[in-house]
Amino acid sequence: MTASSEVPRIDLDQPRWDQSTFLGRLKHFANLTDMRTVLSSDAKLNEARDLVTKYRLGATPPGTTEEQLWYAKKLYDSAFHPDSGELQNMIGRMSFQVPGGMLITGFMLQFYRTIPAVVFWQWINQSFNALVNYTNRNAASAITTKQIGTAYVTATTAAVAVSVGLNSLTSRAPQLMQRFVPFAAVAAGNFANIPLMRQRELMNGILVTDGNGNELGKSKKAAKKGIFQVFVSRVSMAAPGMLLCPIIMQKLERYRWMQRITFLHGPIQVILVGCFLVFMVPTACALFPQRASLAVEKLEPDLRASIQEKYGDTIKTVYFNKGL
Tens of pLDDT along 5-41? Predict the structure, then answer.
């Protein structure tokens, strides 16, 4: 008896959990962003991809269990781009958000007093963000090296300008207020970074399909909606840790034992941020479905007319990958 007859047929092209509900998306993204998958070697990831491919072709190796299939799909989704199928660079994967984000954010929150430290850590953070945004873009919309460079420089400049400017304005303000400056800079950087890194989508539109995956054309309005949702998710991902950690540290630093271990303040903040990110990365990703939708009536007039001419009123909603 072959494995294909032993294992109940499952649709690996669909998420394991219902994406129409927040809880279903939360389970899906907790699975997708599991930082343990970062430790998987390229060989193991390619093996997982091969198993998923074989299953789709009906050539599953004998003895394969349903859990093995779902685990292979988990590794595949965590490391391969949903549009292009290419193996993503490790640092840009959403599964690297917790280890990467906790290190960078923790040190941004710790080293906020001097201009050189602010500039350095904002540069590191925006470099990380640019790589994540590029890695998780809608791959159907190509972007040139020049556009990538422009997006990176603009976002980094915006983040540094906001952080340095606010540092100057709050130099005489209470210390707690000064500790909130990194979050304002991160939000400003994301506001510039995400749209610029995905500017081709805004200029040319992104591919939209019907419910069965049939291509209908490209829409700039869909691109705007998807990019806005990604911006909200990214800011929401960072907000709890960057807003609550300063308050926690402010209270802890009043204790004498904490004052005696100033050399550990940075690592402590890294751990605190990590605790927030473990929960916030999947939560923020789950705020909106990755397969976003838009009513046909809200599309550009020419695309709407094209769809109605070909399909009449049978298609009410179009779908697209908003990216992460």
Answer: 445 577 887 888 888 899 999 999 998 889 999 989 9
- What is the DSSP annotation of 25-93? HHHHHHHHT-GGGGGS-HHHHHHHHHHHHHHHTT-PPTT--HHHHHHHHHHHHHHB-TTT-PBPPGGGS
Decide if 265 contacts 110 (C-beta within 8 A).
yes
Give strand ranges (E) for the chain. 206-209, 215-219, 291-295, 317-321
Q: What is the DSSP letter of 80?
A: B
- Map tokens 């040139």 to a residue: 144
pTM of the model: 0.80
Residue of 135, 291, 288, 138 whose CA lies nearest to 204: 138
Sheet with 317-321, strands from edge to edge, namely 215-219, 206-209, 317-321, 291-295
pLDDT tens by residue, 149-166? 777 787 778 777 877 787
Q: How far apart are CA 224 and CA 226, in angstroms?
A: 6
